[in-house]
Structure formats: C-alpha cells, structure tokens
C-alpha cells in the first residue's frame, strides 16, 4: 500500500491499495469530461394523473456545471416555493454533466421554468417525493486529461483486480499499454471510501462540523463552518473566515463574508438576532439551514469515522472481499437488477466461527458483502477484531454511539455499508488522455476508483 495524498488523509483515506505508480493527469478539464447518469429505480404515474393522489411532479434533468443543491435552490426561487418541496435521489458534483431525477410538490409541468445550463424532461407524477437512495446506482464516463504515463494504468488495473478477488497473483501488471487495458468486462475493486466531495472538494470541513455537533460543541461547529479558512479558497474568502475566527463578530462577519456564502451568512444573521450568548443560540443558528444540510454535517462525521475504520482494516491486513470472525455482513438487495448487485444494509448477520465458511461462500457468489458501521445510536459495531477497530476509531475521535442522539435533523441511528466497491471497468486511451467507463451502486464514489489511477491531489 502507498500513503495517500495529505488532503485525502485528512478525511480518513489513509492509503491507496495499488502499489503501482499513478498516471497523474487532470479531472474535469471541462464539465463534459465528467458525465454521470443515474440508473433509475423510481416508478411514476402519467403526468396527467390526479394531483390529489399524486402531488409530486417528477422530471429528469441534465445539469451542466450545476451542483444539485444549487439547482434545487434556483428552481425553488424561480417557482416561488420552499426549497423543502424539491427532492432528489442523490447529490452530484458541480463541474460535471449529470442526468438525474427530481420531484417537486404541488407544481404543474407547464410551470417548470427554463434555467440556463439545464435540460428538463417531465417524466410523470408520484404519490411521494423522490428520496435519497431512490436509484440503483450511477453510470460514469470520465476523461482524465494529460496523463503523465498512460502505461501505468495497466499495472493499477492488475492491482485492483487482485484486491477485488483477494488473489495477489493478479497484481503487478507489466505496464504493456493499450493491450492490457480493460474493455469493460474486467472486475476491479477498491475500498468503498466516501470520496472527497462528501466532505467538501475544495474545503473539506463538513465532517469537522458534524464531529463538533455530535460532541455537543455547537459554537465550535459554527466556527468550523463559518470560520476555518482554507488555502484553496479565494483570498477574500480566507480573509473573511479568518475575521470570524479572530473576532466572533457576527454582525461584522456579514460585512466581510462574500454574498456567495449564503449558508454562512444565514448562520450569522441568526446569531445577530439571538445574541450568540448560549450554546443553544449556536444550535439554533445551524438549525436555520436546510434540513438536508443539517443531516449532511452529521452524515459527513459518520463518513469520516467509516473511512478511518476502512484505513485501519487495511493497515491490519484484514480482507475486504471475505469476512473474518466478528464481521457483520449484509445480503444482496433482492430488488436489485440481476447483473447489478446492491448491498441491503437492512439485512445483516454477524459472522461467528461456526458460520464463517458459509458466509465466505455467500460473499464469493455476490450474495453477501462485508460491512463496516456508519456509526449511530443503533449501529451494531461487530465483535472480534472488526469490532475492536470500530471502537478504537470512535475513541480516537472522542465519540460514543450515544452522541448521535441529537435534536431534529441532526439525529442519526446509523447503518452499515459495504467495505468493498467492485465494478466492471473499461478504459480507452487517446494519446495522453484516458477515458474510464463503469457503473457503481448508489452511495459510492467514482473518485474513489479514479484516485487509485491518478495518485495525486484530488482537486487537480
């Protein structure tokens, strides 16, 4: 294993599992270089269905250079409705071309506005909003431009084949170039880390906010979000955040913070209104944010802990493709497409010595998946060495499961998540550019696969 880039280690991704040199290169030279299409799993009624029974209008949107939350805000503003009435199944990156489903409550198809950088196709109506997870997965076509050595890709592929199968004899490719690149039928695997964008691609702080919230440190949570400058931000933004850290002057911060930092300004407005004297004032300021963003903070903290657990598992040499005693596995989602297995985190079983060989066979056949906890109040941590890893990481970050018993949208009972991410990979070479094609289950990150090939600054 190789040590990861420092900005990745800051969010718990400590290692690359491939020992091969990276190809370098640049992601997102243009939005069209990063294409994402949702693999849909949400049924609708015809668009002329009764609006009383089916109040949610469902549409498919192609977004070019739009972050999902920003598009939802723009749409709700143009419609003159609360943003809470706009729903979607998965948040996508801004610098990309994405195709995804949305629903909006109480709106007619003809009322949908034209918004620059988008194409909207009305699909139908539904009796409930689209919710996070209402998709099977995502299909990606991603171009990495101006790589330094395309031949290294073959060796990375071999290493990732070995990681997917647990067969070390597959690793150490011969770097033979095009002839060794996969055409779409080669299964590779990587640790199922939460990618950089989960924490903020340019300024990875959402987990710091969430950790402070879980510890009940509401003032620190606000400062981590509103202050806490990052060198990757514009100098004016860094200066404004530094002013917040130095002065805690919330009224003055409104003069300093750029207008684009709408959420940070909203927090400051609330603190000016309520006096910012008590911890509850800071909690209420955070509660002024959209409920999905409140949840995102705590989810990011859970994701950071999960990443740390996976890194510790790697460091200890535990397998990812098969369980060890004390692991908790989940079973395949019975509603998933036959050729696209998806873990069902609601169907779990702890692995005992007596059942180890049986569960190993289920994992080999794609019927079960080794998991790790996304820690919340009700999460099963496991036993043996896997359980010890989870408890060690929680202790390292100063948290207990009960700390996730939080007010409102911050509360989380937790779940579990597969530790191994497998996909069939295709790679095409065009001089110094590489195009990667693959599909991933919902909740997994394309950048987690690509980081193994690039091995560098994730923002480059």
Describe the structure.
With 460 residues, the chain is α+β, with helices and mostly antiparallel strands. Helices cover 32% and strands 23% of the residues. The chain is built from 13 helices and 16 strands. The strands form 3 sheets. Strands 3, 4, 5, 6, 7, 8, 9, 10, 15 and 16 form a 10-stranded mixed beta sheet that branches. It has a 4-stranded antiparallel beta sheet with strand order 12-11-13-14. A two-stranded antiparallel sheet has the order 1-2. Helix 4 packs across helix 10, helix 6 (235-247) packs antiparallel against helix 7 and helix 8 crosses helix 9. The radius of gyration is 23 Å and the shape is globular. The model has no long low-confidence stretch (mean pLDDT 92).
In short:
With 460 residues, the chain is α+β, with helices and mostly antiparallel strands.
